[in-house]
Amino acid sequence: MLLKKLIERLDISTLMPVEISDVIEEIKKIGIQDEINFIPCDLEPEKLQGIYYQCTYQNAVYGDPILVTNIVYSNKVSPDLQRIISCKELIHIFDKNVAKTKTEEDIDGLLDKLLGPFSTEGFDIHEIMATADRIAYYQAAAILFPNAARSEAIQKLNEGKITIDQIAVWVSLPKKLCTLVLSDKWPDIKAVLLNYFDE
How far is CA 71 from CA 90, 142, 156, 178, in A? Predict the structure, then answer.
């Protein structure tokens, strides 16, 4: 339940936007990663918006392994999309092993499922990996648009003091995603997301 713990730690924040660096610090406090690096790249967003990979290294021959996550993201998308993509890739730190790619074949299979239509005939592990990847976008929204900020936004929206466009700028997220988070259905969606593929 480490992802749930992370979201609960950030859920009280009303200082927007939630900075990715704050998310990283919270992940490090949980103790599952030592180093997290973000690498902007000229990726074509139609092909790939972001990817992460993990490795370990040692500073000394008998030293403890240092756990590293590198997140590569497209610098050809808007800043609000860069934030959600980067946070989505951070979410994969919490994935269970079944949802992680380990081989070149796994990566190819995952990309086929993400870029192709959903199939009810080709049940395989890559379908599970693709589902975890899609769900991670919404888990990232739960991190970057915390409950306390959501409540404040809904109150101001209901009072006519702010628009959805202004809220999207305030939280630095895409407007469509903000609309979903502000909807009456979001609390139920979030409850499901907190338990999905979380260790």
Answer: 8, 19, 35, 24
Any alpha helices (H) in the chain, and if so which ranges?
Answer: 2-10, 20-30, 79-91, 104-115, 125-144, 147-158, 164-171, 175-182, 186-193
Amino acid at 54: Q
Domain ranges of the chain: 2-30+79-193
pLDDT band of residue 199 (cuts 50, 70, 90) is very low
Instruction: Give, in order, the Cα–Cα distances in Å from 151 to each of 22, 139, 158, 167.
Output: 21, 18, 11, 12
User: 């339940």: which residue's tokens?
Assistant: 1
Which H or E run contains 62?
none
CA atoms of 153 and 55, how far apart (whole Å) = 39
According to the model, what pLDDT value does residue 117 have?
Answer: 56
CA 35 – CA 33 distance, rounded (Å)? 6
As a whole number of angstroms, the distance between CA 28 and CA 156 comes to 34
